[in-house]
Amino acid sequence: MKTDENKVMRLREAVEKYVTDGCHLSIGGFTLNRNPMAAVHEMIRQGKKDLHVYAHSNGQGVDELIGGGCVSRLEIAYGGTGKFMSTCIRFRKAVEEQTLMVEDYSNFQMTLRFLAGAMGVPFLPTRSSLGTDIIEKWGFSKSFRKENPRIPDEKLLVMDNPFDGWGDAQKVVLVPAINPDVTIIHVQTADVRGNCRMEGLTFADVEQAKASRVLIITCEDLVAEDYLKTEPDRNQIPFIHATAVVKVPFGAYPTACFRYYDYDPVYMKAYARAAHDDAAYQDFLAEMVFQHQTHTDLLDHVGRHRLESILAGRNCGYAKNLDRR
Amino acid sequence: MEYTLKELMTICAAREIKNGDIVFCGTGISMLAAMAAKNINAPQSVIFFETGAIDSELAHIPLAVADSRIMFHTSANGGLMDAFCTMQNPFVGQRVVGILGAAQIDIYGNLNSTVIGEYTAPEVRFSGSGGACDVASFVPRSIIFMKMEKRKFKKKLDYLTSPGYLDGPDGRKKAGLPPGGPDKVITDMGIMGFDPDTKKMILLGFFPGITPEQILDHMEFEIRTDQATEVPVPTETELTLLREKCDPQRLIL
């Protein structure tokens, strides 16, 4: 292995170096699965501020970033984690108290926006949202957009089909490309150069990773250079997109990681309870984030018993007997 | 056989699903309705999630559309791009039935799942579209779960997140949307459909013990009730399969 291709870093250093106040960030995963939670907690610990976050349905991670005071602007399709939080609670509070600027899109639109960024085109078309307020109502005003060179002047544009009805469509919606400064994803396996192998669903991680200037990968298993190349059909992101690689076992905890561990219902329920109250939430942050130096410290705090209860069966991919009531 | 309201609603939605349908599921009761259809009346229907899983076995109930339980024993595991392209696809997209829920609905079946109040200064903020607007835009048929309340059945939505028939029979065409729209609204008091000519909501069925007048009392707008009949109660087979095969741990029911 050539040493100049070794991108392995510590999480603290990677976040210090690449996530700067005010930067444009996206995180991988979906609602309560494979969010890069160790990195989210590290950003909160380091007191990152004024982030501009791009999300489709990145529930738990985005809600904790908002609750941690890291986010000023959010472009999002869905703020929720399913049964544990039908609407993300810190997200909801921040929007209602108007401490967070928010712009709404749909999940497909956000995915297309990342793909457009990854492809190097300014926009992509879809037929989604014609006739709706997603087109009509803007969270970022025209003047705010004009003043801010990092965001397009228009939220979305409706255009007559330039191929004149071809494809049975008279109109299309154009969604603007996104190129984040930093994307952080958590994967099952990465090698030291940053080749990635995900298991289960990939969500929009591949599009988000490739759209980004900097890609930080946290992984359950960190392997030597040749290991993933023996079965390349199973890899989704080649190392050329990667900037930093960090080994973080249970790095998606408390969200799930297919074939490794499930979400932790105890954490998710305690989070939802605390999130309703500002003081209780500060206590929760102190207990789960600020009192720890690293993610390993959080795992020690949670304890072996709880971590064992969420361990996934290698065949089914989740914890069959987990008490989720 | 005794049954709960939730069981009745789930079974009513399941009855709308046919063999060959590809069922787009959200979380909670919509997922359970898809599982019920597969176990009761439409074994050849296909369960499908916006996160990219298609034909999930669902040996255990998922609590979110990204739950690892939807990734087990599927026909293909992909991502969001695969899922939404499937719905916009001119061939297989035509087989997709969307199951949706919302905070507000209007007479044309348009849905709000974004805010109550002004968009930039909302009284209440909800989760937002997720994939709902995409599904409602693309697919020919959707089933909507709603709770009967005046503040939910609105003359005018605070925010139009997901398109139904927009402003009437030509609404979708004028806007440039593909044909399609909501087919049924399943509530905790009865079932609504949409008039084929006006595209306005009409009452099709009321649950045992409920009158059409009581339903109208829970809505801000008036709908026709002259075609409404009592909804058949769940059969013993339906209930047994729902309880034993779909949600034995009672996570949703």
Structural class of chain A: alpha/beta
Q: What is the N-to-C succession of helices and strands of chain B?
A: HEHEEEHEEEEEHEHEEEHEH
In the predicted model, the low-confidence regions of chain A spanning at least 5 consecutive residues are none
Helical content band of chain A: 25-40%
Helix count of chain B equals 7
Strand tally of chain B: 14
What do you see in this structure?
The complex is a heterodimer of chains A (325) and B (253). Chain A is 31% helix and 18% strand. In chain A, strand 8 (182-191) and strand 9 (196-197) form a beta hairpin. Chain A is globular and about 60 Å long. Chain A has helices spanning 11-18, 37-45, 59-67, 89-96, 107-119, 133-136, 142-147, 205-211, 265-275, 278-290, 295-302, 304-309; strands at 24-27, 51-54, 71-76, 101-104, 123-126, 157-160, 171-176, 182-191, 196-197, 214-223, 244-247. By secondary structure, chain A is α/β, with parallel strands linked by helices. In chain A, 53% of the residues are buried. With 253 residues, chain B is α/β, with parallel strands linked by helices. Chain B has helices spanning 5-15, 29-40, 80-88, 132-138, 171-175, 212-217, 236-246; strands at residues 22-24, 46-48, 53-54, 76-77, 96-101, 104-105, 111-112, 115-117, 122-125, 141-145, 182-186, 190-194, 201-206, 229-230. In chain B, strands 2-1-5-10-11-12-13-14 form an 8-stranded mixed β-sheet, sandwiched between helices. In chain B, strands 3-4 form a two-stranded antiparallel sheet. The radius of gyration of chain B is 17 Å and the shape is globular. Chains A and B meet through helix 4, helix 5, helix 6 and helix 8 of A and helix 3, strand 9, helix 4 and helix 5 of B.
